[in-house]
Protein backbone atom coordinates (compact mmCIF):
# COMPACT_ATOMS: atom_id res chain seq x y z
CA UNK A 1 0.00 0.00 0.00
CA UNK A 2 2.82 2.34 0.99
CA UNK A 3 4.62 1.55 -2.26
CA UNK A 4 1.53 2.34 -4.29
CA UNK A 5 1.10 5.61 -2.45
CA UNK A 6 4.73 6.53 -3.03
CA UNK A 7 4.41 5.81 -6.75
CA UNK A 8 1.18 7.75 -6.95
CA UNK A 9 2.76 10.72 -5.22
CA UNK A 10 5.60 10.64 -7.72
CA UNK A 11 3.15 10.74 -10.59
CA UNK A 12 1.31 13.59 -8.88
CA UNK A 13 4.61 15.41 -8.46
CA UNK A 14 5.28 14.99 -12.15
CA UNK A 15 1.82 16.26 -13.07
CA UNK A 16 2.36 19.29 -10.81
CA UNK A 17 5.69 19.95 -12.53
CA UNK A 18 4.06 19.67 -15.93
CA UNK A 19 1.39 22.20 -14.95
CA UNK A 20 4.06 24.51 -13.55
CA UNK A 21 6.14 24.32 -16.70
CA UNK A 22 3.21 24.70 -19.03
CA UNK A 23 2.22 27.91 -17.25
CA UNK A 24 5.54 29.35 -18.45
CA UNK A 25 4.70 28.68 -22.09
CA UNK A 26 4.15 31.39 -24.65
CA UNK A 27 0.77 33.02 -24.48
CA UNK A 28 -1.64 31.81 -27.07
CA UNK A 29 -2.45 34.20 -29.91
CA UNK A 30 -6.08 34.11 -28.98
CA UNK A 31 -5.40 35.86 -25.67
CA UNK A 32 -4.21 39.18 -26.95
CA UNK A 33 -5.12 41.93 -29.36
CA UNK A 34 -2.14 42.89 -31.46
CA UNK A 35 -1.68 46.58 -32.23
CA UNK A 36 1.43 46.12 -34.34
CA UNK A 37 1.30 46.38 -38.10
CA UNK A 38 3.47 44.83 -40.79
CA UNK A 39 4.55 46.66 -43.93
CA UNK A 40 5.30 44.54 -46.98
CA UNK A 41 6.63 46.14 -50.17
CA UNK A 42 7.36 44.59 -53.54
CA UNK A 43 9.04 46.24 -56.51
CA UNK A 44 8.84 44.81 -60.00
CA UNK A 45 12.36 43.59 -60.74
CA UNK A 46 11.62 43.71 -64.49
CA UNK A 47 10.79 47.38 -64.19
CA UNK A 48 13.63 48.45 -61.93
CA UNK A 49 16.49 46.63 -63.63
CA UNK A 50 19.51 48.79 -62.85
CA UNK A 51 17.23 51.81 -62.43
CA UNK A 52 17.32 52.30 -66.22
CA UNK A 53 13.66 53.19 -66.49
CA UNK A 54 13.99 56.24 -64.29
CA UNK A 55 17.27 57.44 -65.82
CA UNK A 56 15.69 57.48 -69.23
CA UNK A 57 12.74 59.47 -67.97
CA UNK A 58 14.94 61.92 -66.11
CA UNK A 59 16.53 62.77 -69.45
CA UNK A 60 13.12 63.93 -70.65
CA UNK A 61 12.47 66.09 -67.62
CA UNK A 62 10.80 65.63 -64.21
CA UNK A 63 8.91 62.44 -63.48
CA UNK A 64 5.31 63.36 -62.84
CA UNK A 65 3.10 61.54 -60.35
CA UNK A 66 -0.62 61.84 -59.83
CA UNK A 67 -1.92 60.74 -56.43
CA UNK A 68 -5.53 59.57 -56.66
CA UNK A 69 -7.31 61.60 -53.93
CA UNK A 70 -10.01 58.97 -53.35
CA UNK A 71 -9.10 56.08 -51.08
CA UNK A 72 -11.93 53.57 -51.08
CA UNK A 73 -12.82 51.43 -48.08
CA UNK A 74 -13.86 47.88 -48.95
CA UNK A 75 -15.52 45.81 -46.24
CA UNK A 76 -16.84 43.00 -48.39
CA UNK A 77 -20.34 43.58 -46.95
CA UNK A 78 -21.38 47.11 -47.89
CA UNK A 79 -20.64 49.04 -51.06
CA UNK A 80 -17.20 50.61 -51.14
CA UNK A 81 -17.14 54.17 -49.82
CA UNK A 82 -14.49 56.87 -49.91
CA UNK A 83 -12.54 56.93 -46.65
CA UNK A 84 -12.90 60.01 -44.45
CA UNK A 85 -9.10 59.74 -43.98
CA UNK A 86 -8.39 59.86 -47.74
CA UNK A 87 -6.58 63.19 -47.49
CA UNK A 88 -4.33 61.99 -44.69
CA UNK A 89 -3.38 58.88 -46.67
CA UNK A 90 -2.75 60.72 -49.94
CA UNK A 91 -0.83 63.57 -48.24
CA UNK A 92 1.59 61.03 -46.78
CA UNK A 93 2.00 59.35 -50.17
CA UNK A 94 2.57 62.68 -51.97
CA UNK A 95 5.08 63.78 -49.34
CA UNK A 96 7.08 60.57 -49.65
CA UNK A 97 7.10 60.71 -53.45
CA UNK A 98 8.24 64.36 -53.40
CA UNK A 99 11.10 63.38 -51.09
CA UNK A 100 12.15 60.78 -53.66
CA UNK A 101 12.34 63.46 -56.37
CA UNK A 102 8.98 63.16 -58.14
CA UNK A 103 6.81 66.07 -59.23
CA UNK A 104 3.20 65.85 -58.01
CA UNK A 105 0.66 66.85 -60.67
CA UNK A 106 -3.06 67.62 -60.36
CA UNK A 107 -4.23 65.93 -63.57
CA UNK A 108 -3.97 62.23 -64.22
CA UNK A 109 -3.49 62.83 -67.95
CA UNK A 110 -0.20 64.68 -67.27
CA UNK A 111 1.22 61.93 -65.10
CA UNK A 112 3.90 59.34 -65.79
CA UNK A 113 2.76 57.36 -62.75
CA UNK A 114 -0.46 57.12 -60.78
CA UNK A 115 -0.48 56.35 -57.05
CA UNK A 116 -3.60 54.53 -55.93
CA UNK A 117 -4.56 53.40 -52.43
CA UNK A 118 -7.30 51.09 -51.17
CA UNK A 119 -8.33 50.27 -47.61
CA UNK A 120 -9.62 46.74 -46.92
CA UNK A 121 -11.39 46.19 -43.62
CA UNK A 122 -12.21 42.49 -43.64
CA UNK A 123 -13.81 40.38 -40.91
CA UNK A 124 -13.56 36.57 -40.91
CA UNK A 125 -15.85 34.83 -38.47
CA UNK A 126 -16.44 31.23 -37.36
CA UNK A 127 -12.93 30.20 -38.29
CA UNK A 128 -11.55 27.03 -36.70
CA UNK A 129 -8.07 27.46 -35.28
CA UNK A 130 -5.62 25.05 -33.68
CA UNK A 131 -3.82 26.94 -30.87
CA UNK A 132 -0.06 27.40 -31.08
CA UNK A 133 -0.08 26.53 -34.77
CA UNK A 134 -0.63 28.55 -37.95
CA UNK A 135 -3.47 26.19 -38.89
CA UNK A 136 -6.84 27.66 -39.62
CA UNK A 137 -9.54 25.11 -40.38
CA UNK A 138 -7.24 22.34 -39.11
CA UNK A 139 -9.81 19.55 -39.59
CA UNK A 140 -9.79 20.20 -43.30
CA UNK A 141 -6.03 20.71 -43.45
CA UNK A 142 -5.27 17.39 -41.80
CA UNK A 143 -7.99 14.81 -42.24
CA UNK A 144 -11.24 16.32 -43.38
CA UNK A 145 -13.09 14.85 -40.41
CA UNK A 146 -14.04 15.61 -36.82
CA UNK A 147 -11.56 14.63 -34.14
CA UNK A 148 -12.80 15.58 -30.67
CA UNK A 149 -9.36 15.33 -29.03
CA UNK A 150 -8.05 18.25 -31.08
CA UNK A 151 -8.29 21.43 -28.96
CA UNK A 152 -9.71 23.59 -31.71
CA UNK A 153 -11.14 27.06 -31.11
CA UNK A 154 -13.68 28.88 -33.20
CA UNK A 155 -12.46 32.41 -33.60
CA UNK A 156 -13.21 35.65 -35.35
CA UNK A 157 -10.39 37.71 -36.71
CA UNK A 158 -10.34 40.94 -38.63
CA UNK A 159 -7.73 42.52 -40.88
CA UNK A 160 -7.11 46.16 -41.66
CA UNK A 161 -5.08 46.52 -44.86
CA UNK A 162 -3.96 49.51 -46.87
CA UNK A 163 -2.86 48.56 -50.38
CA UNK A 164 -0.84 51.21 -52.21
CA UNK A 165 0.07 50.78 -55.86
CA UNK A 166 2.30 52.73 -58.19
CA UNK A 167 0.86 52.33 -61.67
CA UNK A 168 2.60 53.21 -64.90
CA UNK A 169 0.20 55.78 -66.41
CA UNK A 170 0.67 54.91 -70.11
CA UNK A 171 -0.27 51.28 -69.48
CA UNK A 172 -3.27 52.42 -67.42
CA UNK A 173 -4.53 54.61 -70.28
CA UNK A 174 -4.06 51.80 -72.79
CA UNK A 175 -5.99 49.42 -70.53
CA UNK A 176 -8.83 51.89 -70.11
CA UNK A 177 -9.10 52.34 -73.88
CA UNK A 178 -9.22 48.55 -74.36
CA UNK A 179 -11.80 48.20 -71.59
CA UNK A 180 -14.02 50.94 -73.03
CA UNK A 181 -13.71 50.12 -76.73
CA UNK A 182 -13.16 46.35 -76.82
CA UNK A 183 -14.30 44.66 -73.61
CA UNK A 184 -17.48 46.54 -72.67
CA UNK A 185 -19.22 46.39 -76.09
CA UNK A 186 -18.87 42.60 -76.20
CA UNK A 187 -19.28 41.96 -72.44
CA UNK A 188 -21.75 44.53 -71.12
CA UNK A 189 -21.90 44.71 -67.34
CA UNK A 190 -19.04 42.26 -66.82
CA UNK A 191 -15.66 42.89 -65.26
CA UNK A 192 -12.63 41.42 -67.03
CA UNK A 193 -10.49 38.99 -65.08
CA UNK A 194 -6.70 38.99 -65.28
CA UNK A 195 -6.76 36.22 -67.88
CA UNK A 196 -9.12 38.16 -70.13
CA UNK A 197 -6.75 41.10 -70.62
CA UNK A 198 -4.36 40.72 -73.58
CA UNK A 199 -0.68 41.03 -72.64
CA UNK A 200 -0.21 44.36 -74.44
CA UNK A 201 -3.06 45.93 -72.42
CA UNK A 202 -2.07 44.69 -68.98
CA UNK A 203 -1.38 47.39 -66.41
CA UNK A 204 2.25 47.77 -65.35
CA UNK A 205 2.63 48.03 -61.57
CA UNK A 206 6.26 48.87 -60.73
CA UNK A 207 5.71 48.97 -56.97
CA UNK A 208 3.12 47.97 -54.40
CA UNK A 209 2.84 48.06 -50.63
CA UNK A 210 0.57 46.27 -48.17
CA UNK A 211 0.24 47.67 -44.67
CA UNK A 212 -1.53 45.05 -42.64
CA UNK A 213 -2.66 44.60 -39.05
CA UNK A 214 -5.55 43.62 -36.84
CA UNK A 215 -8.78 45.60 -37.21
CA UNK A 216 -9.89 47.09 -33.90
CA UNK A 217 -13.08 48.49 -35.44
CA UNK A 218 -12.42 51.95 -34.03
CA UNK A 219 -12.12 54.10 -37.11
CA UNK A 220 -9.66 56.65 -35.73
CA UNK A 221 -7.32 54.01 -34.21
CA UNK A 222 -7.39 51.81 -37.29
CA UNK A 223 -6.67 54.67 -39.69
CA UNK A 224 -4.03 56.27 -37.46
CA UNK A 225 -2.09 52.98 -37.39
CA UNK A 226 -2.16 52.79 -41.18
CA UNK A 227 -0.98 56.40 -41.53
CA UNK A 228 1.79 55.89 -38.98
CA UNK A 229 3.13 52.90 -40.90
CA UNK A 230 2.80 54.42 -44.37
CA UNK A 231 6.25 56.18 -44.39
CA UNK A 232 7.94 52.80 -43.68
CA UNK A 233 6.69 51.51 -47.02
CA UNK A 234 8.73 54.18 -48.82
CA UNK A 235 11.75 54.08 -46.50
CA UNK A 236 12.19 50.35 -47.20
CA UNK A 237 11.93 50.91 -50.98
CA UNK A 238 14.96 53.13 -51.74
CA UNK A 239 14.98 51.99 -55.37
CA UNK A 240 11.99 54.29 -55.93
CA UNK A 241 14.24 57.33 -55.72
CA UNK A 242 14.65 59.21 -58.99
CA UNK A 243 18.20 59.13 -60.32
CA UNK A 244 18.80 62.84 -60.38
CA UNK B 1 5.56 17.62 -35.93
CA UNK B 2 3.54 20.80 -36.23
CA UNK B 3 0.32 18.99 -35.46
CA UNK B 4 1.63 17.80 -32.05
CA UNK B 5 0.92 20.69 -29.73
CA UNK B 6 2.59 21.19 -26.37
CA UNK B 7 -0.59 20.04 -24.64
CA UNK B 8 -0.37 16.74 -26.50
CA UNK B 9 3.24 16.32 -25.44
CA UNK B 10 2.31 17.00 -21.82
CA UNK B 11 -0.49 14.44 -21.99
CA UNK B 12 1.91 11.94 -23.52
CA UNK B 13 4.45 12.55 -20.75
CA UNK B 14 1.87 11.92 -18.05
CA UNK B 15 0.48 8.81 -19.76
CA UNK B 16 3.92 7.30 -20.41
CA UNK B 17 4.99 7.96 -16.84
CA UNK B 18 1.83 6.44 -15.39
CA UNK B 19 2.01 3.35 -17.60
CA UNK B 20 5.68 2.82 -16.88
CA UNK B 21 5.03 3.17 -13.17
CA UNK B 22 2.33 0.50 -13.37
CA UNK B 23 4.60 -1.76 -15.40
CA UNK B 24 7.48 -1.52 -12.93
CA UNK B 25 8.21 -5.03 -11.74
CA UNK B 26 10.93 -5.50 -9.16
CA UNK B 27 12.25 -8.94 -8.45
CA UNK B 28 11.26 -9.58 -4.89
CA UNK B 29 12.69 -12.37 -2.78
CA UNK B 30 10.87 -13.40 0.35
CA UNK B 31 13.11 -15.02 2.91
CA UNK B 32 11.80 -17.85 4.95
CA UNK B 33 12.87 -18.69 8.46
CA UNK B 34 12.75 -17.11 11.83
CA UNK B 35 12.19 -13.63 10.56
CA UNK B 36 9.32 -14.49 8.28
CA UNK B 37 7.93 -10.99 8.32
CA UNK B 38 11.11 -9.45 6.78
CA UNK B 39 11.10 -8.87 3.07
CA UNK B 40 14.23 -7.93 1.21
CA UNK B 41 14.35 -6.42 -2.22
CA UNK B 42 16.63 -7.24 -5.09
CA UNK B 43 17.11 -4.66 -7.80
CA UNK B 44 18.03 -6.28 -11.10
CA UNK B 45 21.07 -4.87 -12.80
CA UNK B 46 19.66 -5.47 -16.23
CA UNK B 47 16.40 -4.12 -17.50
CA UNK B 48 14.61 -1.55 -19.58
CA UNK B 49 14.19 2.03 -18.36
CA UNK B 50 11.87 4.81 -19.39
CA UNK B 51 12.95 8.39 -18.77
CA UNK B 52 10.94 11.58 -18.76
CA UNK B 53 12.52 14.96 -18.08
CA UNK B 54 11.37 18.53 -18.32
CA UNK B 55 13.88 21.32 -18.65
CA UNK B 56 14.98 24.54 -20.21
CA UNK B 57 17.22 25.08 -23.20
CA UNK B 58 19.67 27.95 -23.09
CA UNK B 59 20.80 29.23 -26.48
CA UNK B 60 24.53 29.12 -27.25
CA UNK B 61 26.54 29.50 -30.44
CA UNK B 62 24.49 30.74 -33.41
CA UNK B 63 21.12 30.41 -31.72
CA UNK B 64 22.02 33.03 -29.08
CA UNK B 65 22.21 35.71 -31.81
CA UNK B 66 18.75 34.74 -33.00
CA UNK B 67 16.60 33.75 -30.03
CA UNK B 68 17.82 33.69 -26.48
CA UNK B 69 15.60 36.04 -24.53
CA UNK B 70 12.88 33.65 -23.43
CA UNK B 71 13.81 30.01 -22.81
CA UNK B 72 10.72 27.84 -23.09
CA UNK B 73 10.16 24.31 -21.73
CA UNK B 74 12.00 21.41 -23.24
CA UNK B 75 10.82 17.80 -23.06
CA UNK B 76 12.79 14.59 -23.24
CA UNK B 77 11.50 11.04 -23.52
CA UNK B 78 13.92 8.16 -23.41
CA UNK B 79 13.78 4.40 -23.64
CA UNK B 80 16.89 2.63 -22.49
CA UNK B 81 18.37 -0.70 -21.53
CA UNK B 82 20.75 -1.21 -18.61
CA UNK B 83 23.37 -3.83 -19.39
CA UNK B 84 24.85 -3.62 -15.90
CA UNK B 85 24.94 -1.29 -12.91
CA UNK B 86 27.36 0.91 -14.83
CA UNK B 87 26.37 0.81 -18.49
CA UNK B 88 23.20 1.79 -20.23
CA UNK B 89 22.17 2.38 -23.85
CA UNK B 90 19.19 4.52 -24.84
CA UNK B 91 17.03 5.93 -27.58
CA UNK B 92 15.81 9.45 -26.95
CA UNK B 93 13.34 11.99 -28.31
CA UNK B 94 13.97 15.56 -27.29
CA UNK B 95 12.16 18.79 -28.06
CA UNK B 96 13.20 22.33 -27.17
CA UNK B 97 12.31 25.84 -28.18
CA UNK B 98 13.76 29.28 -27.67
CA UNK B 99 12.32 32.63 -28.62
CA UNK B 100 13.11 36.33 -28.60
CA UNK B 101 11.09 39.47 -29.21
CA UNK B 102 13.34 41.60 -31.40
CA UNK B 103 11.15 44.70 -31.50
CA UNK B 104 10.58 46.80 -34.62
CA UNK B 105 12.80 45.77 -37.51
CA UNK B 106 13.03 45.84 -41.27
CA UNK B 107 13.87 42.68 -43.23
CA UNK B 108 15.20 42.88 -46.75
CA UNK B 109 13.96 39.74 -48.51
CA UNK B 110 15.45 40.60 -51.89
CA UNK B 111 16.62 43.74 -53.69
CA UNK B 112 13.02 44.70 -54.40
CA UNK B 113 11.11 43.16 -51.52
CA UNK B 114 11.06 44.05 -47.82
CA UNK B 115 8.94 43.58 -44.70
CA UNK B 116 8.94 45.66 -41.55
CA UNK B 117 7.14 45.37 -38.23
CA UNK B 118 7.47 43.86 -34.76
CA UNK B 119 9.72 40.88 -35.21
CA UNK B 120 9.68 37.70 -33.11
CA UNK B 121 12.25 34.94 -33.55
CA UNK B 122 11.47 31.37 -32.65
CA UNK B 123 13.70 28.29 -32.73
CA UNK B 124 12.12 24.85 -32.43
CA UNK B 125 14.13 21.64 -32.37
CA UNK B 126 13.16 17.97 -32.37
CA UNK B 127 16.07 15.59 -31.82
CA UNK B 128 16.21 11.82 -32.23
CA UNK B 129 19.25 10.27 -30.59
CA UNK B 130 20.86 7.01 -29.63
CA UNK B 131 23.57 6.91 -27.03
CA UNK B 132 25.20 5.42 -24.01
CA UNK B 133 25.56 6.26 -20.35
CA UNK B 134 28.21 5.30 -17.83
CA UNK B 135 27.72 5.53 -14.08
CA UNK B 136 30.92 7.10 -12.77
CA UNK B 137 30.51 5.98 -9.18
CA UNK B 138 27.75 4.18 -7.34
CA UNK B 139 27.75 6.14 -4.08
CA UNK B 140 24.43 4.81 -2.88
CA UNK B 141 20.92 3.99 -4.01
CA UNK B 142 20.22 7.73 -4.05
CA UNK B 143 23.37 9.06 -5.68
CA UNK B 144 24.67 7.78 -9.00
CA UNK B 145 26.52 10.41 -11.08
CA UNK B 146 26.92 9.57 -14.74
CA UNK B 147 28.37 10.76 -18.03
CA UNK B 148 26.82 10.07 -21.40
CA UNK B 149 27.15 10.65 -25.09
CA UNK B 150 24.46 10.60 -27.76
CA UNK B 151 24.45 11.06 -31.51
CA UNK B 152 21.56 11.43 -33.90
CA UNK B 153 19.66 13.75 -36.16
CA UNK B 154 17.82 16.90 -35.21
CA UNK B 155 15.25 19.00 -37.00
CA UNK B 156 16.10 22.68 -36.47
CA UNK B 157 13.35 25.12 -37.44
CA UNK B 158 13.95 28.86 -37.46
CA UNK B 159 10.87 31.02 -37.64
CA UNK B 160 10.81 34.79 -38.10
CA UNK B 161 7.36 36.25 -37.52
CA UNK B 162 6.52 39.87 -38.33
CA UNK B 163 3.60 41.48 -36.51
CA UNK B 164 1.65 38.19 -36.54
CA UNK B 165 1.15 38.69 -40.27
CA UNK B 166 4.17 37.27 -42.07
CA UNK B 167 6.12 34.16 -41.14
CA UNK B 168 9.43 33.17 -42.73
CA UNK B 169 10.73 29.71 -41.91
CA UNK B 170 13.93 27.81 -42.43
CA UNK B 171 14.09 24.13 -41.49
CA UNK B 172 16.80 21.53 -41.80
CA UNK B 173 17.70 18.09 -40.41
CA UNK B 174 21.22 18.19 -39.04
CA UNK B 175 23.47 15.56 -37.46
CA UNK B 176 24.12 16.21 -33.80
CA UNK B 177 26.39 15.22 -30.92
CA UNK B 178 25.22 15.48 -27.32
CA UNK B 179 27.65 14.98 -24.43
CA UNK B 180 25.88 14.98 -21.10
CA UNK B 181 26.47 14.67 -17.38
CA UNK B 182 23.89 13.96 -14.75
CA UNK B 183 22.84 12.49 -11.48
CA UNK B 184 20.50 9.57 -10.97
CA UNK B 185 19.15 7.93 -7.89
CA UNK B 186 16.37 5.55 -6.90
CA UNK B 187 13.55 7.01 -4.88
CA UNK B 188 11.87 3.74 -4.01
CA UNK B 189 13.21 0.89 -1.95
CA UNK B 190 12.59 -1.64 -4.72
CA UNK B 191 14.77 0.51 -7.00
CA UNK B 192 12.30 0.84 -9.84
CA UNK B 193 11.45 4.54 -9.73
CA UNK B 194 14.15 7.18 -9.63
CA UNK B 195 15.05 10.78 -10.32
CA UNK B 196 17.31 12.17 -13.02
CA UNK B 197 19.06 15.55 -13.19
CA UNK B 198 20.80 16.15 -16.44
CA UNK B 199 22.89 18.82 -18.14
CA UNK B 200 23.39 18.26 -21.86
CA UNK B 201 25.25 20.21 -24.51
CA UNK B 202 23.72 19.81 -27.96
CA UNK B 203 25.98 20.56 -30.92
CA UNK B 204 24.52 20.45 -34.43
CA UNK B 205 26.87 19.84 -37.32
CA UNK B 206 25.84 22.06 -40.23
CA UNK B 207 24.12 25.27 -41.18
CA UNK B 208 20.53 26.40 -41.23
CA UNK B 209 19.15 29.70 -42.48
CA UNK B 210 16.05 31.79 -42.83
CA UNK B 211 15.31 35.18 -44.33
CA UNK B 212 17.25 37.25 -41.76
CA UNK B 213 19.99 34.92 -40.51
CA UNK B 214 22.35 32.20 -41.59
CA UNK B 215 23.26 30.07 -38.59
CA UNK B 216 26.41 27.96 -38.57
CA UNK B 217 26.97 25.05 -36.14
CA UNK B 218 24.17 26.01 -33.73
CA UNK B 219 24.24 24.67 -30.18
CA UNK B 220 22.38 24.91 -26.89
CA UNK B 221 22.66 23.82 -23.30
CA UNK B 222 19.79 21.95 -21.73
CA UNK B 223 19.19 21.62 -18.02
CA UNK B 224 16.49 19.16 -17.08
CA UNK B 225 15.02 17.15 -14.28
CA UNK B 226 12.62 14.25 -14.24
CA UNK B 227 11.89 10.69 -13.28
CA UNK B 228 12.71 7.29 -14.68
CA UNK B 229 11.22 3.87 -14.23
CA UNK B 230 12.97 0.53 -14.52
CA UNK B 231 10.76 -2.21 -15.84
CA UNK B 232 10.82 -5.75 -17.28
The succession of helices and strands of chain A, N to C, reads HEHHEEEHEEHEHEH
Please give the CATH class of the domain at 43-169 and 209-237 in chain A.
Answer: Alpha Beta
CATH fold-level assignment of chain B = Porin
> What is the distance, rounded to the nearest whole angstrom, between the alpha carbons of the first and last residues of chain B?
30 Å
Give a nutshell description of this structure:
The complex is a heterodimer of chains A (244) and B (232). With 244 residues, chain A is of the alpha/beta class. Chain A is built from 7 helices and 8 strands; from the N terminus they run H-E-H-H-E-E-E-H-E-E-H-E-H-E-H.
What does this structure look like?
The complex is a heterodimer of chains A (244) and B (232). With 244 residues, chain A is of the alpha/beta class. Chain A has a domain at 43-169 and 209-237: 2-Layer Sandwich (Double Stranded RNA Binding Domain), CATH 3.30.160. Chain A has helices at 2-22, 45-48, 52-59, 86-99, 138-142, 169-186, 219-235, and strands at 38-43, 64-67, 72-74, 81-82, 103-105, 113-129, 153-168, 207-214. In chain A, strands 1, 2, 3, 4, 5, 6, 7 and 8 form an 8-stranded mixed β-sheet that branches. In chain A, a hairpin with a 6-residue loop joins strand 3 (72-74) and strand 4. In chain A, helix 4 packs parallel to helix 7 (219-235). Chain B has 232 residues and is mainly beta. Chain B has a single domain (6-231), classed as Beta Barrel (Porin), CATH 2.40.160.20. In chain B, 9% of the residues lie in helices and 66% in strands. Chain B is built from 2 helices and 12 strands. Chain B has helices at 6-23, 63-66, and strands at residues 27-30, 39-42, 47-59, 70-82, 87-110, 113-135, 144-162, 166-186, 193-204, 207-210, 213-216, 219-231. In chain B, strands 3-4-5-6-7-8-9-12 form an 8-stranded antiparallel β-barrel. A two-stranded antiparallel ribbon of chain B has the order 1-2. In chain B, strands 10-11 form a two-stranded antiparallel ribbon. In chain B, strand 10 (207-210) and strand 11 form a beta hairpin. Chain B is elongated. Classes of the chains: A alpha/beta (244), B mainly beta (232). Chain A binds chain B through residues 3, 6-7, 10-11, 14-15, 17-18, 21-22, 24-26, 29, 34, 36-45, 48, 130-135, 138, 142, 151, 212-214, 232, 235-237, 239, and chain B through 2-3, 5-7, 10, 13-14, 17-18, 21, 24, 52, 54, 70, 72-73, 99, 106, 108, 110-118, 162-167, 187-190, 193, 226-227. Strand 1 (38-43) of chain A pairs antiparallel with strand 6 (113-135) of chain B.
Amino acid sequence: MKKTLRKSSLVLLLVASVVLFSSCMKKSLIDSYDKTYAVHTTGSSDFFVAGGQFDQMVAQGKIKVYVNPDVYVVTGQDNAVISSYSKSFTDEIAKAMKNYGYEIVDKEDDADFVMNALNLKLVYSMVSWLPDTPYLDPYLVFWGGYYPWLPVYTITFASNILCVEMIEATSLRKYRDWYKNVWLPSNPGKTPGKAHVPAEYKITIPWQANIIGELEDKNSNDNTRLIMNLPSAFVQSPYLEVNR
Amino acid sequence: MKMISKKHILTLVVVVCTVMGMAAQPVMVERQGRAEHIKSYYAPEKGFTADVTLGYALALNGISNYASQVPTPSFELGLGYSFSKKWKAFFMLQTASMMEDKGYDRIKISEYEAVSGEKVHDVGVVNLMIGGEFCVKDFSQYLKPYVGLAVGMGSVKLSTEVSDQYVFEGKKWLPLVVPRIGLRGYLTRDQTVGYNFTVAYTQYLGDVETVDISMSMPSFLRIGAGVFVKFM
